């Protein structure tokens, strides 16, 4: 095991029709004469390889967008208080709702972490695909609604490959002497609940990792939640700040969602909004009405305290109306239960994968966008470029021992937990460029290539947190800001000053 099967891969299934699934499909399609099946997010690059006879994309939602799709429904319809604490990655497949926010029947609705007023974390010149820039007149950090429209346009040429409203139920490996890697994909069309199955030579999993919320098992949290139902929640279910008007709120976590949601809520909640975290954020908080506090170490007994919590420094806060956990997600693949060795143990990382992509025992199974703290759309192109070329036979993987060696080295350097897939700058750019260089080894004008980051883009990425703060500080005027130069971040001017020995830097965040 650990090598690709012979005969060559001809039939590909892609699970997920969001940003990643459509990307890998395009890269395959570029070879012109292939037809590819993808499920969910990562199909563009595979089509570019042309040697594939069948490409199917399975998307459980009714439209393009994946994680970027928004629905009001979870706020009033999902009883998520019974998910606290949430530490088990082994979950059943999510069942859709068929009612929209106005009580009318709609397409299948699945919960996503989108909320009102959300804007991208990255400036548009770093966020976009290599072949589709955002419009020059768009604001610098793109609103959620515009991102959805952008993805619809990007996916136009691969839409015929997508089976919408179709949920993958199970993927199992069926080996034979003639072909050791045959993947049986069992799926259900959600409208009529009809179940079917099909065989593929390779599977790309492109569902993201925002499906199973992680809420830590803090001492006392279970009894507190039972005594005060509805007061503990996760950012996956947050939709608007008005739901917290006049309330005493604690935000747990200070990553991108925690910082942004705390800023939103602080405009209507009882101030200060307490932002609880274990470490300093790599982002710069904006606005007022917030107070940073240490991590919560105990939810105090309801019999002795009025909705009380204790922080690590001993401070006690009572009368807490809402605690919103912005504590991330667990990796979970309920449609892949029978793999051995297993992909998931505690859910903090995906096991037995090479370069965050290939399942080592059977590299005909691959994943797109396992890493985080990255530039997702460009990274999906870099990964898809490699996967498409490996599956077409134009690029070779190392021996299984070497791939397991990469995983072992990663564990030594990053640990077994969430840091395994964390690619903080500059590692994200270095990893992206290394994937580009790997794919370029075989590129002779065939297939699609991702963009390789240059020095100006690296300079911008290094400063993105300061750029984001400068943008947010403009308030409503931020909607008129379209370039980083308008905020005082001018790479050419910085370069000239550096050459002249007069460097004055507006802000660097590593």
Question: How would you briefly describe this protein structure?
Answer:
By secondary structure, this protein is of the alpha/beta class. The chain contains twelve helices and 22 strands. The two termini are 40 Å apart.
Plain-language structure description:
With 510 residues, the protein is of the alpha/beta class. A 5-stranded parallel β-sheet has the order 5-2-1-9-22, with helices on one face. It has helices at residues 19-29, 73-77, 124-127, 144-154, 221-227, 256-265, 376-392, 400-414, 427-440, 455-462, 464-472, 491-500, and strands at residues 11-15, 54-58, 97-99, 105-109, 162-163, 166-173, 183-189, 194-200, 202-205, 212-213, 232-234, 248-252, 270-276, 290-293, 296-299, 309-311, 316-317, 322-325, 329-330, 353-354, 358-359, 365-367. The longest helix is centred in the last third of the chain and has 17 residues, at 376-392. The protein is globular, with a radius of gyration of 23 Å. Helices cover 24% and strands 17% of the residues. The model is unreliable at 32-42 and 75-79 (pLDDT under 50).
């Amino acid at each position: 095991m650990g090598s690709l099967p012979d005969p060559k891969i001809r039939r590909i299934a892609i699970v997920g029709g969001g940003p990643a699934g459509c990307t890998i499909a395009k890269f395959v399609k570029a070879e012109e004469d292939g037809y590819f099946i993808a499920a969910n997010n990562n199909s563009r690059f595979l089509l570019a390889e042309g040697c594939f006879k069948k490409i199917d994309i399975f998307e459980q939602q009714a439209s393009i967008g994946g994680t970027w799709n928004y629905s009001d429904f979870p706020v009033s319809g999902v009883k998520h208080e019974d998910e606290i604490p949430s530490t088990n990655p082994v979950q059943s497949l999510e069942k859709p709702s068929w009612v929209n926010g106005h009580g009318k029947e709609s397409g299948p609705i699945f919960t996503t972490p989108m909320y009102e007023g959300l804007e991208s974390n990255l400036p548009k010149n770093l966020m976009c695909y290599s072949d589709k820039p955002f419009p020059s007149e768009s604001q610098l950090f793109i609103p959620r609604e515009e991102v959805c429209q952008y993805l619809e346009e990007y996916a136009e040429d691969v839409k015929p490959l997508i089976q919408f409203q179709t949920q993958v139920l199970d993927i199992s490996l069926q080996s034979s002497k003639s072909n050791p890697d045959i993947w049986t994909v069992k799926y259900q069309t959600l409208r009529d609940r009809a179940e079917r199955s099909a065989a593929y030579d390779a599977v790309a999993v492109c569902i993201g990792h925002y499906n199973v919320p992680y809420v830590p098992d803090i001492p006392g949290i279970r009894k507190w939640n039972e005594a005060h139902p509805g007061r503990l929640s996760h950012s996956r279910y947050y939709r608007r700040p008005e739901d917290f008007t006049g309330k005493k709120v604690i935000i747990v976590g200070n990553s991108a969602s925690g910082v942004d949601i705390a800023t939103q809520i602080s405009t209507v909640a009882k101030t200060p909004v307490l932002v609880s975290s274990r470490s300093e954020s790599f982002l710069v908080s904006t606005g007022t009405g917030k107070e940073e506090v240490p991590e919560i170490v105990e939810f105090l007994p309801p019999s002795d305290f009025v909705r009380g919590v204790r922080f690590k420094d001993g401070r006690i806060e009572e009368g807490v109306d809402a605690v919103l956990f912005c504590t991330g997600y667990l990796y979970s693949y309920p449609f892949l239960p029978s793999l051995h060795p297993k992909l998931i143990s505690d859910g903090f990382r995906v096991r037995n994968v090479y370069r965050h992509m290939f399942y080592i025992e059977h590299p005909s199974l691959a994943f797109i966008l396992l890493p985080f703290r990255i530039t997702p759309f460009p990274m999906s192109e870099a990964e898809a470029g490699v996967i498409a070329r490996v599956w077409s036979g134009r690029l070779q993987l190392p021996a299984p021992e070497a791939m397991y060696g990469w995983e072992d080295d990663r564990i030594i350097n990053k640990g077994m937990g969430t840091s395994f897939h964390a690619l903080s700058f500059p590692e994200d750019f270095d990893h992206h460029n290394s994937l580009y260089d790997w794919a370029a080894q075989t590129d002779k004008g065939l297939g699609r290539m991702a963009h390789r980051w240059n020095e100006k883009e690296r300079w911008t990425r290094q400063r993105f947190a300061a750029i984001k703060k400068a943008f947010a500080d403009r308030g409503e005027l931020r909607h008129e800001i379209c370039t980083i130069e308008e905020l005082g971040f001018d790479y050419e001017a910085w370069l000239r000053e550096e050459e002249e020995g007069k460097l004055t830097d507006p802000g660097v965040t590593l």
